[in-house]
Design brief:
Radius of gyration: 18 Å
Largest sheet: 5 strands, antiparallel
Strand content: 35-45%
Order of helices and strands: HEEEEHEEEEEE
Number of helices: 2
Number of strands: 10
Distance between the termini: 60 Å
Strand order of the largest sheet: 7-3-2-5-9
Length: 152
């Protein structure tokens, strides 16, 4: 009986997250306000959406925006093939619109001028915004407790 209890305790400890927080943040480390966006590739999770995108998150220097509560993919979802691809998307632009962070995608994303959250497909026109080449980065799963810093 003691062996069953010990094994059960070990399994519970292994399945318990080590951190209370599992959020994803975008942080402004630039010298002026930045307007930031966030997205992730979800086509691989059996979904109909290729890129799920959200924005804008305006933040002053040394401020962060929590763009997702919880993990993008928990380990049990990954094991059963129920995760999006391990690609995070981002775009950032300072108030003076002189420069940007992004530009590593092979296609443009229609990025509205106002707040948005939608399923984005590669676009050739954007009547309510601009076509922008967002940045992308791969990350190991699960994507938890992650902070992306917009640096000078």
């Amino acid at each position: 009986m003691r062996r069953i209890f010990t094994l059960s305790a070990i399994v519970i400890l292994l399945l318990t997250p080590s951190r209370a927080s599992a959020d994803i943040y975008l942080c402004n480390r630039y010298n002026q306000r930045i307007w930031m966006t966030y997205g992730y590739e979800s086509y691989g999770a059996g979904g109909k959406c290729h890129n799920w995108v959200r924005g804008w998150f305006p933040r002053d220097p040394n401020q962060c925006a929590k763009v997702r509560s919880g993990c993008l993919c928990n380990w049990w979802s990954w094991v059963f093939g129920d995760c999006p691809y391990n690609v995070l998307r981002f775009f950032g632009e300072p108030d003076d619109m002189n420069g940007f962070w992004g530009g590593t995608q092979s296609f443009n994303t229609c990025t509205p001028w106002s707040a948005f959250e939608y399923c984005a497909f590669p676009a050739t026109s954007c009547p309510d915004g601009r076509l922008l080449a967002w940045g992308s980065m791969t990350h190991d799963f699960p994507i938890c407790d992650y902070t992306f810093n917009f640096l000078p």
